[in-house]
Design a protein that fits this description.
Layout lengths: L11 E10 L3 E9 L2 H6 L5 E5 L23 E13 L11 H17 L9 E14 L12 E2 L9 E4 L2 H8 L8 E7 L6 E5 H6 L2 E4 L6 H13 L4 E2 L7 E6 L5 H4 L1 H6 L4 E5 L6 H12 L4 H15 L4 H4 L5 H10 L3 E4 L14 H7 L8 H23 L2 H18 L6 H19 L12 H9 L8 E2 L2 E7 L2 H22 L5 E6 L2 H4 L12 H10 L5 E7 L7 H4 L4 E4 L5 H11 L3 H4 L9 E6 L10 E4 L3 H9 L1 H7 L1
Parallel strand pairs: 10-18, 10-19, 12-16, 12-17, 13-14, 13-16, 17-18
Antiparallel strand pairs: 1-2, 1-7, 2-5, 3-4, 3-7, 4-5, 5-6, 8-9, 8-21, 11-15, 19-20, 20-21
Helix pairs in contact: 8-9, 9-11, 12-15, 13-14, 14-15, 16-17
The structure holds adenosine-5'-triphosphate and magnesium ion.
Magnesium ion binds next to helix 5.
Length: 647
């Protein structure tokens, strides 16, 4: 039979009292008689039900649906968020009492913890819990073999009544309430009820933004890899099912997702690794890409060598390091299938030649060599000479251009000692700096390997035009020499993508722009000299959903994030945050109390406190979820297990 709660005596507790709480409404104190068994069953995240004050059925809008009825029963559901063992003999740290007694009673408690395995005898010990409401209640009038249907809770539990531990079927029903299975994926398992899968609706997660907050090493990148995997697992969708199609743009400052999402870079035809700045990857990779683009005969050999070089430098989690050799073939495939594209602004590629003699002419002053007419003539002929040289330099490129520019610099250095005014010397110096800047620009990248933001926008905004065509999922990982390079590309990408969708009224496929190390790109103050993406991220967060554009942010330093963006995600994942300032920011932005957040201290890697206003079945209340390890997925994809089993 399906039951809402456990019936055994050992599983029953009692509600001792409730006190108001600004974030959750109230906090309840619940005690269970200590047994070792129950202490292992109840954990932060366990759900309990306690009879509440309600005396009649109500309509969804709160109006009474029937007359009062003294026999009416309804149960409020609460979630335990603190659990600790308590024994009468050992209270406090023991510093106050007579040491001999304190130790003796601690020793007797030791026996009690073990002896009271499935039954509590002496009334000296308790499991003390605190719980918060999840704003759902149920009645016990369901048909046979049906679980009760939870509904909005307008009441409060009655102190003194029994607390009943919900069965895992009921936990599953409560946590996955009203989930649309067709749009959902399994995020992970409930931390206490391991047999309960936690479902998340893709479109609500991606379109209504999500945030990932946890200390360094808590598993943010691993989680991002798993979420992206699940979003893209939506697969190819026919034109009529645009809502169910997804693409991802992942801004990857540390260049760690080539390793963590290699499966999705390879398996979708339109996935791209977007490289901002040619010095991001080993030089051989660029060379190999060029040769592939050119159709050279030895392209495959060069791609193999480049992939070997690259695989040795690839950033991988320690669990995957020993398998770096298995990446060679895959990285080579990225090169051969031309999935790696490079971006450098025209200025950096030396394609913008902005030098002209006018700046120098305007700043040097007419008396630079003196006031005589000869002096003036000398100045004019110098300026004409430089103007000519600049003209030749503009038409040249590469070494030839560099030689001419060097010639101009040495000519200016020669006349420097003849200059009679400070203004003149200053003007010459600053002009030399301008020339040097231009010289630092690089050779143009060959067209076959380069991309521009609008190319990627076209891939992201592609709309199948006839009914037989499909939306295809894809992953775009953006890496770069530094944040400046990435920002230049991504800011144009987001602006163009948004504008293009707005003018053409494009809603699908949903694109999720995910920022790892988000504090670098969307910092509260303008700490980054290279600029930032606050404006673009704000646009996505505030107006993106209308056009199917969402944002995801992952960071370990919550306090550095721009506050208005920080407040936008409807779904957030929180792990250990040892700094109080970070926790306070989370507590403020999402109305989670510090007491509830404290349970994250006990989390191991891969455990997350998940709260969502839309994407999960339980709305607006944090609950603990065990996420799968993304490294396992990659290992399977690389064939590690298969090969180990056959050898
Ligand atoms: N769910 C998980 N199961 C098992 N191991 C995990 C899980 N999540 C992360 N790990 C491991 O924990 C380590 C840290 O994970 P990860 O790099 O994802 O953390 P992070 O929060 O992104 O750290 P950083 O702040 O340095 O970016 C890695 O070795 C990773 O493989
Ligand atoms: Mg990380």
């Amino acid at each position: 039979m399906t039951t809402a709660w456990l019936d055994d005596d050992w599983s029953k507790g009692i509600l001792l009292g409730i006190k108001p709480d600004p974030t959750s409404g109230y906090r309840a104190t619940v005690w269970f008689e200590y047994t070792r068994r129950i202490f292992n069953e109840i954990r932060e995240g366990s759900l309990i039900a306690i009879r509440n004050f309600s005396d009649r059925r109500r309509n969804p809008n709160g109006s009474p649906a029937e007359d009062r009825n003294a026999g009416y029963e309804e149960y409020s559901i609460l979630q335990i968020d603190q659990v600790y063992p308590w024994h009468y003999a050992i209270q406090g740290g023991g510093e106050q009492g007579y040491p001999g007694f304190t130790v003796a009673s601690a020793e007797s408690a030791r026996r009690d913890w073990l002896d009271m395995d499935i039954q509590n005898r002496d009334d000296v010990s308790r499991v003390k819990c605190e719980a918060i409401p999840i704003r759902l209640a149920f009645r016990l009038d369901a048909q046979d073999d049906q679980l009760p249907e939870p509904f909005f809770d307008r009441s409060m539990p009655m102190p003194g009544f029994e607390a009943r531990l919900l069965s895992s079927e009921m936990v599953r029903a409560v946590l996955n309430r009203d989930i649309d299975e067709a749009q959902a994926f399994e995020l992970g398992r409930h931390v206490v009820q391991y047999d309960v899968p936690i479902m998340v609706e893709r479109h609500k997660l991606a379109r209504l933004h999500f945030g990932i907050f946890g200390y360094t090493g808590s598993g943010k990148s691993n989680l991002v890899s798993s979420l992206v995997d699940r979003l893209l697992a939506s697969g190819r969708q026919p034109a009529g099912r645009g809502e169910q199609a997804f693409k991802v743009v992942l801004i990857d400052l540390m260049d760690e997702y080539t390793g963590l999402l290699i499966d999705h870079l390879i398996s979708h035809d339109y996935s791209r690794l977007i490289v901002c700045g040619r010095r991001t990857l080993p030089e051989r990779v660029l060379t190999a890409c060029e040769e592939v683009g050119r159709g050279s005969e030895n392209a495959a050999q060069l791609a193999l060598e480049a992939a070997e070089d690259w695989s040795r430098r690839l950033i991988l989690p320690s669990e995957l390091k020993e398998h770096s050799g298995r990446y060679v073939e895959r990285l080579m495939s990225l090169i051969l299938r031309q999935k790696i594209v490079f971006y450098e602004p025209r200025r950096l590629q030396g394609q913008d030649f902005t030098l002209g003699v006018d700046n120098l002419r305007n700043n040097i002053g007419t008396a630079a060599f003196g006031r005589g007419s000869e002096d003036r003539e000398r100045l004019n002929s110098l300026l004409d000479e430089i103007d000519n040289l600049l003209g030749t330099a503009r038409d040249a490129d590469g070494d030839e251009r560099r030689q001419i520019l060097n010639q101009i610099i040495s000519r200016l250095n020669d006349v420097d000692q003849d200059l009679t005014t400070g203004t003149g010397r200053k003007a010459v110096k600053s002009f030399i700096r301008e020339i040097e800047e231009q010289m630092r620009s690089r050779e143009p990248l060959p067209g076959s390997v380069t991309t521009e933001p609008y190319n990627i926008v076209n891939l992201l905004n592609f709309q199948p035009s006839h009914p037989g065509a499909s939306y295809l999922p894809s992953l775009n990982v953006v890496i770069g020499e530094d944040e400046g390079h990435i920002i230049t590309f991504v800011s144009q990408l987001i602006e163009n993508c948004f504008e293009n969708r707005r003018t053409r009224s494009i809603l699908y496929p949903t694109v999720s722009f995910i920022f790892d190390e988000a504090d670098v790109f969307i910092a509260q103050d303008n700490r980054q000299s290279a600029g930032n993406l606050v404006a673009q991220a704000t646009m996505l967060a505030r107006r993106g959903r209308k056009f199917g554009l969402g944002i995801g942010i992952a960071t370990q330093r919550v306090v550095y994030l721009d506050t208005s963006i920080m407040a936008q995600p409807h779904t957030y994942f929180v792990s250990k945050l040892p700094r109080k300032s970070d926790r306070e920011r989370i507590a403020d932005a999402f109305a989670i109390s510090d007491e509830t957040l404290k349970q994250t201290f006990g989390f191991t890697v891969g455990q997350w406190l998940v709260t969502s206003h839309d994407a999960t079945g339980l709305k607006g209340v944090p609950f603990p979820v065990q996420l799968p390890n993304a490294n396992d997925r990659i290992r399977r994809w690389l064939g590690v297990e298969r090969d180990q089993n056959t050898t």
